[in-house]
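Section 3.1: Structural characterization of target chains.
Under the original work plan, the team committed to producing a structural model for every single-chain target entering the pipeline before any wet-lab resources were allocated. The record below documents one such target. The sequence was received from the expression subgroup and is listed exactly as submitted; it comprises 408 residues.
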Amino acid sequence: MTTAVIHGEDLGKRYRRGLQVDGGLRHSLEEFLRSPVSSLRRKKEETFWALKDVSLEVKEGEVLGLIGRNGAGKTTLLKILSRITRPTTGWAEIHGRVGSLLEVGTGFHPELTGRENTFLSGAILGMGRAEITRKFDEIVAFAELEKFIDTPVKHYSSGMYVRLAFSVAAHLEPEILLVDEVLAVGDISFQKKCMGKMDDVSKTGRTVILVSHNVGAIGQLCRRCVWLDNGSVVSDGSTDATIAEYVKSMAAGQEKGTWERTGDGRVRFTSIEVCDPDGLPVTHIPMGHDLSIRAAGKSEGGGTEFDLSFQLVTANGVLALWAYDQFKTFRANSQGEFLIEIRFPQLLLMPGSYFLNLWAGRTGQEEFDYVRNATSFEVIQSDRIPVTYPLTNQYGLFYGRPEGTQLK
């Protein structure tokens, strides 16, 4: 029987919220003079549990996915398992050398070159100099930075920076690998390389715990998945079943008007809708009918330019469609407002539930806004598709009847 290399029992982590730093005697006197009574009153200490009563066991060679909203406790759990943070309650045992990819770029110094930072970051992450030297060419080639490796990283774009940082971290060879949302670094093509690298790691028999908002990546790499919410385990089981539960809860969040998003906020989506050919918002689209995605938003300044990409994801986290290259250089008007419409003529997605992720930024450089599970819609069977058998996703994601020519 495969042995457990990670075992956590009743793990909890409590933090203090909103504590003020002591400003010294002068600050205390000023407080007393302004309000003598309130300054003498003891301030109430507010605490919250980032993680509470989490028990976990991971077998040797298992690839486990962790999903959940921002603030659900995923990163806190990885920090406890990697010995960065002590738990407030409970205990954890780990058997084997641990590599942690919790923050891409840990240890990078802006004045040092890419070459020097590769050795510095590798040493911080636990690699010996001989090991870094042996893997150096592979690391640089993976990051696609051969021409800039002797340039100080302060001159790198954000995309170049994270490519090198991920490449260094990804070439660790620990027995246990803890990975926190590093598959979202860089541009689209580099994200595919990250996925391929993590897939290679998962096939070598190493134990991996992967945190990601990309449920498609979790579905591809992991057989088991744990869903955390408000610091507690909601579900722990097969990846498909757990993701389906999670996505259903995200759909309920849409109805309440809450979005999970990242980005620096220079561009912000304010409404995202799926519409029928008449431009009316809908929740159901028959196969073969036209569909459009309409997104409105605001930017910090008038005339702001940005690229757009979107993903359509099935209810169990399979990526059905990812479009990005054809949606470049949108521009907000002088008031900083924009309205974008993307049309799909004769949609031939198979029946089922689909969720929309929408991204705005500068491809390969900056992320302004990324809304996950922004909205959802249902594709239903239609009289336009004359088939006699029931159409389901088990036959694929798209329905098509290509025309062929017989060769003689």
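The radius of gyration is 25 Å.
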